[in-house]
Prior knowledge:
The complex is a heterotrimer. Chain A is α/β, with parallel strands linked by helices. Chain A has helices spanning 43-50, 94-104, 111-118, 135-148, 165-180, 192-198, 222-232, and strands at 5-14, 17-27, 32-36, 56-63, 66-67, 79-82, 153-157, 184-188, 201-206, 209-214. Chain A has one domain (5-232): Rossmann fold (3-Layer(aba) Sandwich), CATH 3.40.50. In chain A, strands 6-7-8-3-9-10 form a six-stranded mixed β-sheet, sandwiched between helices. Chain A has a four-stranded antiparallel β-sheet with strand order 2-1-4-5, with helices on one face. In chain A, a hairpin with a 2-residue loop joins strand 1 (5-14) and strand 2. In chain A, helix 2 (94-104) packs parallel to helix 4 (135-148) and helix 3 (111-118) packs antiparallel against helix 4 (135-148). Chain B is globular. The two termini of chain B are 17 Å apart. Chain C has helices spanning 2-19, 21-40, 45-76, 83-86, 91-120, 128-153, 162-170, 172-186, 194-219. Chain C has one domain. Chains in contact: A-B, A-C, B-C. The interface between A and B is medium-sized, with 22 and 19 residues.
Amino acid sequence: MAPAVSFLEAVSLTGHFPVLAGLTLEVNEGEVVHLRGPNGAGKTSLLRACAGLLPIVSGEAVVLGHDLKADRVSVRREVAHLGHKTFLYDDLTVEENVRFAVRAARAPTTGIEDSLGKVELNGRLRTTAVGRLSAGQRRRTALAVVIARGARLWLLDEPHAGLDEEGREVLDRLVAAAANSGGTVLFASHELERAESIATRSIEIRGGAAIAASPARRRRSSAHEAKVNLDVA
Amino acid sequence: MTVTSTPLKEQPGRAVDVASSPRRLRRSASTRRDRLVAALGLLALIGVVIDVWLGLWVTPPDQTLGNLVRLLYIHPALAWVMYIAYGIAFLSSILYLWPRTRSPRFDHLAGAAAEVGVVFTGLTLVTGSIWGRPTWGTWWTWDPLLTTTALLFVLYLGYLAVRRVPGDPATRAKRSAVAALVAFIDVPVVYFSVLWWRSLHQLPTVDDPVTGKTYVHGSMAWTLLLSFVSFSLVFLWLLIHRYRLSLLAEKESDELLAIAMAERRGEVAR
Amino acid sequence: MWRDALLVAGKDLRVELRSRVALAEVAPFALVVLVLFGLALGPDRSVLQNVATGLFWVAALLATVLAVQRSFAIEAADDARDGLRLSGLDPAGVFAGKGLAIAAQLVVIEIVLAVVAALLFDVHLSGGLTLIAICVAATTGLVAVGTVYGAVAARARVRETLLPLLFLPVVAPVLLAAVKASKAALAGTPSHGYGWLELLGVFAVVYVAVGAVAFGPLVED
């Protein structure tokens, strides 16, 4: 089975700076991979590269079967990227933002209701303009977009940041659910404990390249795993 | 997963300083090129000097225009070169945008041509204005060619401004090429619209010295031809140097990149 | 592509409906320009009547610059320039969609401007059908050029002064042609302006084509 993400000595430049300096990485479907490393190491760049945003100037980079060197654009409908910024339109409501993103990705609009429910924004807030929401609520809206697009690969950059404790629980559940249904999740996070409880693997990024990968970790306990599954059902 | 990091020296395809015959050959080839360019420059200089001498002293004053006609030996040549420059910038930009012929050299060429072109445009405007002054009494007439030239000037200042926007070289090149495309396609449109705009108004019957017909004959014709040739050579010489400057600047950035890559890998070792 | 275009246009117009920037800020700006010109060129009615069409179109051009800047600014809010790229939308569709939205706003502004200009400068509005054709052709050309340059000038660390410098010289022919054609139409001899109208049409077609082709590569990093 072809891996979901496959990078081989990939190099990507921003101006003259190599944000990815010969990065080699392989991620299979269904994995939840935690990217850790110091600031400026290239975690954000790797996630952006997987979303087809960065030009790969040398090496190999294949995401979900799309060769990023040949065509970076078509992969974008199949991935969902959650970055530091939320890419939302302040003047539109939560629901309108999600609807726009879903239709742009040619995903079925039936998933909107469900996604709003999962992030607990399907009450009064769904018709509130995004500009009026708190940072945490904006993050949750962006998360709803990720879910509603039904992407096979989730690229989350510091997803826990800006969310309160409850929001983080919700996020963890959603990540687990996505992985369970065959999706792949790559996320960067400084919250090592929480990250390691949801990740199946951890990779360190340093200097624009991938360093050691800890062996596939089981989740902390099967009881915990069962709890996660039950919540999602 | 281990780090794959080969020292710079051993990487294939990387130019390494080795004292061997290939290096000497490379150097002699480039000095030959340099000598050719220097010869070109000298030729251009001689051409311009002769042009000035002929223009100022040898050729006769015109029947109607008097000594003012001597600007004939500068102004049209400048305008001609200006259009050549922009033509080169336009073609280079297209070649850059076309996937099969995409090469950074075309981007450098377009930028160099546009810069030199802007200088010549400015000179065209100034000489055109000077030419018009004694006849019209004003520094500016809304003559179609002059007005088109003024608009071209601003168009390409805008293009140069786009080139200065920071970003990685490929993005900048693409952006500049598109800007050149949009701007250059506009040139004929501008020219015709300004021409129609002017022709609608009944102009006084005095021949506009800048676009009007002046009877050119004998030594005047030869001098005119010489001016076209020598200014073209000047342009070529300037273009080559500006293009080289552009290439050298990029080479410098590439070397900075190599250093940055090495440092990045060095971070890993920490 | 049209699907994406309509989606983007709808989104842009919905944002405009909520925020009302074109209505509350750009249109008043254009009106202020008219009034200022009126002040500057003196109270002599015959002078103003003569220059009215010129002033209208200059104000329309300046309004286009603002409208384009606004259109790209909403994408950049929250520094989210990548948003449209990540959405997976077809770039040509984005170009058409943004262009349609800007054009719609401009048409409304032009109508308001026309009414006010007619009032301020004592001009009788006639030759309706031709005037509409002129507005449509001119606006299409303006918007096509504006959208392309808007994308060029919308990158990070670029000053807002870049867009006017790029845009205004390129659309100088549109200004010329629109003024001439409008003058002919208003004077009751629209046929004198048909040549200019053709020029407007050609300009519009050429630049829509250029924009559709160039927009994609332009927006990519």
